[in-house]
Amino acid sequence: MKWTVLIIALMIMLCASASAQPNAYSSNVATGAPTPMTPSSAQALGLQAPTDVVGSQQAPSAQESTQTLMMASQDAAYASAPVSRAVTANAVYNQMIIPTGGSAPNNLYISYAPRTIASCNLYANLPLWMQISGRGNIWFYEWYPEGWLDTQYAGYVNYPGWFKRWFFADTPGWHILQYYCGGWSNYAYIYVSGPSGHWINPRPERNPVPYPYPYWDSQITYSYPPTGHTYYSYKSTTTIGR
Predict the structure, then answer these.
(1) Could you give the C-alpha distances from 229 to 64, 188, 222, 240, in angstroms and in order?
(2) In this structure, are strands 136-143 and 125-132 parallel, antiparallel, or unpaired?
(3) What is the CATH architecture of 25-193?
């Protein structure tokens, strides 16, 4: 009986210790990039995936698709908002979440200003609006659901102002975004979900090719825009075509 009590107590201590550990997000960055603080997970913050899921209709123009950063304006950022939206949703989805104990002189918004939390379908494109307070090199950070960090150099700006870039939803789950330009921005949270009727990898990885054995017998087809490939899966075979 005593051994049983001791084992249960030890398990409780181990669970408590594990829950107290910091989030398993990477802070490894590209050479020359400022090292960010690891963000809090959506679960730790109690964030819920927004119900107004953005589809895949939006896409960068041919010109924008070749640029990592574009000039924009405050009017354009706010004009992207839908005509009608709930006041309660604004309060929930417009939270300014900044690094713990730090500051965020720059602002980052999703889809439209001042939104910072959003949902979209897999393979959708979302505009990101950046209100930069100074000049300098821009480094953009994206934490993936698995915890690894993608760091990109986005260019140099000579003056403060509004800029725009695009987010591509390539992996299901929560994505956390941030950038640095003479100072940090707030975090932006995007939940990527799969559109109805499409095959979604339950354990997403960077490779978009589905498992050779889908969960149902009918053929499933979907496209992967960055490479222009279309993937087909049927029973035990998987073929790739353009």
Answers:
(1) 21, 29, 9, 7
(2) unpaired
(3) Sandwich (2.60)
**pLDDT value at residue 149:** 95
User: Of 135, 129, 132, 178, whose CA–CA distance to 157 is shortest?
Assistant: 135
Beta pairing class for 188-193 and 117-121: parallel
What integer pLDDT is reported at residue 75 of this predicted model?
Answer: 96
Specify the pTM.
Answer: 0.71
16 SS3 class: helix
125 has which bridge partners?
A: 168
Cβ burial 13-24 (10 Å sphere, 16+ → b, else e)? eeeeeeeeeeee
Give the start-end residues of each E strand in 46-203: 70-71, 107-110, 117-121, 125-132, 136-143, 149-157, 161-168, 173-180, 188-193
Q: Decide: 213 and 234 in contact? Cβ < 8 Å.
A: no
pLDDT per 10-residue tile (average), the chain, 242 residues: 46 39 75 93 94 77 82 93 60 90 92 95 93 96 94 94 95 96 97 64 45 36 42 35 36
Q: Within the chain, which residue ranges are assigned CATH 2.60.40.1930?
A: 25-193
Whole-Å CA distances, 151 to 91, 140, 168, 225: 30, 6, 14, 21
Pairing of strands 229-234, 220-224: antiparallel
